[in-house]
Amino acid sequence: MNTTSVDSYLQDGCGRCDLYRTPDCKVHRWTGGLQVMRELLLAAGLTEEMKWGSPCYTWAGKNVAMIVSFKESCALQFFKGAGLQDPEGKLESPGPNSHYGRFLRFRSSQEVSERRTQASQFIDQALALERAGVKLAAPTEREPMPAELEQRLATDPQLALAFAALTPGRQRSHILHIGGAKQADTRERRVERCAGEILAGRGFAER
């Protein structure tokens, strides 16, 4: 995973697969659009960092937005996108298990340039939300704790303390991963794999 700099990301790629530093890396499909998004985010006064192999933009240490590349699109990801005003429905949820994050997706680099004003408006909204200290309401319902994880926590006090110390988002990532397996033996194996990450204070797949 490339965590060095945004310049390196644009030049070499994200480093998530064997296509790193090759012309076929998905990042290189969107270079023009990614550069436009970068300019808009920096112009808004956000701080540029590399997190999780992608350019991340923060204010006062708080994550506001990311630039992300996919095979068929690129996007601005807003960490509190669910709290943004979007009367035209341009923002997309990353998936059914995402409560807060939203994507502003583009299918070509030219489209990014054509929608600069719209992108800037969302960026300004996201920054204003963070400056105001707005906290989005937590989901009213949480995913059920898998029985296999519940049993392990009940019999392993050290793991139970470590799990309790995780942020709700990190707890949820383990619950979703373990509970996503259909077979009980698979869930048990996932509990074993997650135990080390929980003890290290990390969410599932967090590095």
Secondary structure topology:
Layout: H1 6-12, H2 31-43, E1 47-51, E2 54-59, E3 62-69, E4 74-78, E5 91-92, E6 102-106, H3 109-114, H4 116-131, H5 147-155, H6 157-165, H7 168-179, H8 184-199
Antiparallel strand pairs: 1-2, 2-3, 3-4, 4-6, 5-6
Helix pairs in contact: 2-4, 5-6, 7-8
Keywords:
6 strands, 2 domains, 207 residues, alpha+beta, globular, 6-stranded antiparallel sheet
Radius of gyration, in Å, reads 19 Å
| Helix content bin | 40-55%
Topology pattern, helix = H, strand = E: HHEEEEEEHHHHHH
Q: Could you list the spans in which at least 5 consecutive residues all have pLDDT below 50?
A: none
* Mean pLDDT, all residues: 90
DSSP, total strands: 6
Strand content: 5-15%
Shape: globular
Instruction: Count up the helices.
Output: 8
Number of domains: 2
**What strand line-up does the widest sheet have?**
1-2-3-4-6-5
Distance between the termini: 10 Å
Briefly note the structural class of the backbone: alpha+beta
Major sheet size, sense and barrel closure: 6 strands, antiparallel
